Backbone:
């Protein structure tokens, strides 16, 4: 699978200049941050910026982010920004803060992803190519469409839990997106404006579910592209059992809270899954 992500596809030069900001929330990611930043900013996408949202990580991630930003922001080019928050406020509020800042700073597209290499930076050009060529509102890096896959090291129990969480929330909310808890997504700026980030209340995994639900309610054009999801390489997971349990009942709460939201007048398109992403382009 490695070859699929080591040599990202090369986009036409105008596409490489697209103003896209990659937002990465971090909490204790000191060991991952330099590697992931270099991989993303080394993709050859000149319009791409990176925004780290750090919650005063005890391991010093915030300071490392500042040092990296100083080294990337040379020659008058602002390639990396850091948003420092006072303390651990959760994944959802970190994304809301980071995405809002990215939009305010002029990003036309906003990418969300983890710091731990579960979401390979190598997929970014392909996802950007898909959103630009299809006019989609959101492109999801998905584990659960044909061609998508999970880390071979996942136990049957972890696979079962992930499968169950997806089935539970999809059925309850009536959503057709196949990877409901995916954290690897590329958003069109106006789609995020329409969602209204200030209306998002969820933290943890349920943040992804709430956003997917709003995509469905607002009849967005959603495209799921298959990815191989690798387990975090280094560092600790922040998603503990209470966070996972909270997600189960919060699905009911968000269904109720957003029940009246809808966009009138357009037909609800089926989410589309495109073919496997490869180093020489996409094969459908
Ligand atoms: N700013 C901020 N970032 C967070 C917080 N919680 C998690 N993160 C980051 O959000 C991303 C996803 O968290 P992970 O711990 O990797 O969650 P996960 O992918 O479900 O768990 P793993 O299986 O261990 O990878 C990582 O980049 C974390 O550092 C938080 O409270 N604040
Ligand atoms: Mg992770």
Residues:
């Amino acid at each position: 699978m490695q070859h699929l992500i080591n040599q990202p596809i090369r986009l036409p030069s105008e596409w490489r200049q697209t103003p896209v900001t990659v937002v990465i929330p971090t909490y204790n990611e000191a060991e991952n941050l330099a590697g992931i930043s270099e991989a993303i900013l080394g993709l050859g996408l000149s319009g791409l910026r990176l925004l780290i949202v750090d919650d005063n990580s005890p391991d010093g991630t915030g300071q490392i982010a500042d040092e990296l930003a100083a080294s990337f922001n040379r020659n008058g080019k602002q390639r990396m920004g850091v948003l420092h928050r006072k303390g651990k406020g959760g994944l959802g509020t970190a994304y809301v803060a980071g995405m809002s800042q990215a939009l305010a700073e002029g990003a036309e597209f906003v990418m969300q992803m983890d710091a731990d290499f579960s979401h390979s930076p190598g997929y970014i050009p392909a996802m950007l190519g898909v959103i630009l060529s299809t006019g989609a509102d959101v492109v999801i890096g998905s584990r659960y469409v044909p061609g998508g896959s999970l880390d071979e090291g996942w136990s049957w129990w972890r696979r079962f839990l992930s499968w169950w969480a997806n089935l539970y929330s999809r059925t309850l909310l009536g959503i057709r997106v196949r990877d409901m808890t995916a954290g690897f997504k590329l958003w069109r700026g106006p789609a995020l404006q329409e969602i209204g980030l200030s209306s998002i209340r969820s933290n943890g995994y349920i943040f992804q579910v709430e956003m997917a639900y709003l995509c469905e309610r607002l009849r967005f054009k959603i495209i799921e592209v298959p990815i191989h999801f690798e387990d975090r390489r280094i560092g600790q997971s922040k998603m503990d059992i209470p966070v996972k349990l909270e997600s189960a009942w919060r699905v009911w709460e968000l269904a109720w809270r957003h029940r009246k939201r809808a966009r009138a007048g357009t037909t609800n398109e089926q989410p589309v899954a495109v073919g496997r992403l490869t180093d020489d382009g996409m094969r459908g």
Summary: The chain is about 40% helix and 15% strand. The two ends are 17 Å apart (CA to CA). The pocket of guanosine-5'-triphosphate (ligand 1) is lined by residues 24-27, 29, 53-55, 88-91, 94, 114-116, 118, 232, 237-239 (CB under 6 Å). The chain has one domain: 11-258+268-274.
